[in-house]
Fold this sequence. Notes:
Elements: H1 15-22, H2 39-45, E1 85-94, E2 104-108, E3 134-138, E4 144-150, E5 155-156, E6 165-166, E7 169-175, E8 182-188, E9 212-217, E10 224-227, E11 230-232
Amino acid sequence: MKHSIPKHRNNGMTRREVTRKLGLAVGIGLVGVPYARAAAQVAAEAAAQTPPQVEGPFHPIHKQADTDLDLVMIKGHQKSATGEVIGVQGRVVDTNGRPLAGVEVDVWQANHHGRYSHTGDPNPAPLDPDFQGQGIVTSDSNGRYAIRTIKPGAYPLIFLGEDGWRCRHIHFKLSGTGVNSLTTQMYFEGDPLIAQDMEIAKAPRELRSLLIASASPDPTSGVPIYTFDIVLQQA
């Protein structure tokens, strides 16, 4: 099965220029497109915590030099990562819909080819030395977070001794003062592999939609911006 994704080129722009073009400020940035769901709607749906998902075996085990919000460009590298550039943004709220500030949002994922930058990944797909692989950001005073990354590739489970495919997904691990930690995954609306994915199937059927993010194009760059709001329980 092939997944054809156009390559991204930064056309000689600096890291800061590329980040600003996407609409992200350096630090905890806010993407310059409307949220897919208004804050009132988030609050209305907030009674249900975002379903937990398996952490999986490929959370980074070695501390990276660069874990900022821009996974597409590594500090000191001249090239950007291979694949389709996307933005991911959202709000971290409690079960009453109140924004949660200061929550650490740890994200990691496979690269464009469906391989993790992890020594334990047996997938023979290519590594991408220019893909950061992990980013760690903190929710702002309004509970918002944002990252810039590559749409991850799907990968076959045969290399892990299972049948089928893992659909495209991004891992999230959230922790903070006064909240229960949560590990979950974000999926991509329209991905045909979601229907057979073994991990999203473990979430209650009525809550699976909370794990699937939809996209709106950035009005300036046209980059797809996926909105993924996350609900945590107060400790």
